[in-house]
Amino acid sequence: MSHNDEVLPYPLGYDTALEPPKEWARLRGQCPMATIELPSGDHATMLTRHEDIKTLLTDSRFARPTAADNAARIAPEGSGGGVATGDSTMAIPDEGEPHRRWRRMVGKYFTAKRMAALRPSMTVTTEHLIDDMVRKGAPADLKADVGFPLPVYVICDMLGVPADDRHRFSRWSDMLLSVTRYSREETRASMGEFTQYMSAHIAAKRADQTDDLIGMLVRESEGEGQGMSDAELLTTAMGLLVAGHETTANAIGKMVAMLLADRTRWERLLADPSLVRTAVEESLRFDVNHGFGLRRYLPEETEIGGQALPAGTTVVCAIASANRDENVFDHADQMDLGRTPNPHLAFSAGPHSCLGQALARTEMQVALETLLRRLPTLELAVPAEELRRVEGLLVGGLQEVPVRW
């Protein structure tokens, strides 16, 4: 527990969508291990400093909570809990050698080299999406018109599933990521549909060899027990579809919103497009709206930052607070588009760092460079203070990003 008896309701409050909660700076300084109360009423410990969070995330002893852990629950009883409540039927091994083996198998498809090869087709897709947005006219919602469809088309293409089904994917993925938004019945029915859909898809790939990601994993799994079990294949395909679309769609929208909120940032990029790569990293760092925060369960008493945390503690890592830590980043509260080095933790760190980070970076870079080239006059169609956050999901985002040009 923290040394004082303060219990903060979590998620913390904030003034506007692009500003951090006021408490972060105070907590980093005075109470870097704060006690928080989750929507379920359970208590957990929130870490806010870069060093502490990095220490925890890179320690392979700590994994995401599972149903067996008796960890703090996020959502109140009776609300739908896909991934949120830990009761999903996820068959991906979460730690040790099985986890490393799984990451090696899937990671082969997400290398920076493979992603670079996808760049030209990603650029063409982005161009088409911008054409459609321009045709419909301003004001437009950049998140709905570009941010959301781009990652969906790309991940559908990589997995070899039809992009025409994307509206079903978004509903399923919302359900999987829901904290408080859907009832348990809705979530269960939806997961049943998603599971059935993916199982049929994998069976079709077994019958007819394809060279997309699922097709290749299926082929590898037919060897001498080296590959994935059916359950692992199913979970992997479902997990990648969700992970590959929701977070990046949100990241593209938030990035553009931050760059246009102070339009001198956008103008700096127009003047020097070579800053696109560092600007993407800085928008990942500067983003205050990461969603729920990464949870870890401590099976044994652990010392972090000189403080003992008892066994059985559920920890929530406030990644976005770590990314604003003055001890690591000079002028941490300023968006510096040329910032380097930039050791942000937006993709986590250690054995569970984001497998798709090369993909996400490539999509964000392509979206940004194409928008700069095609719509140099882009601007927010509402004052930045009026942007609204997505609530009630594990991932953070803006409800819409209204723009004109």
TrEMBL record:
Protein family: Belongs to the cytochrome P450 family.
Name this polypeptide is given: Cytochrome P450
Names of required cofactors: heme
CDD domains in the record: Cyp158A-like
Pfam annotation, one family: p450
Keywords: Heme, Iron, Metal-binding, Monooxygenase, Oxidoreductase
Alphabetical list of PANTHER family matching this protein: CYTOCHROME P450 BJ-1 (PTHR46696:SF5), P450, PUTATIVE (EUROFUNG)-RELATED (PTHR46696)
Region annotation Disordered: where it falls in the sequence: 73-97
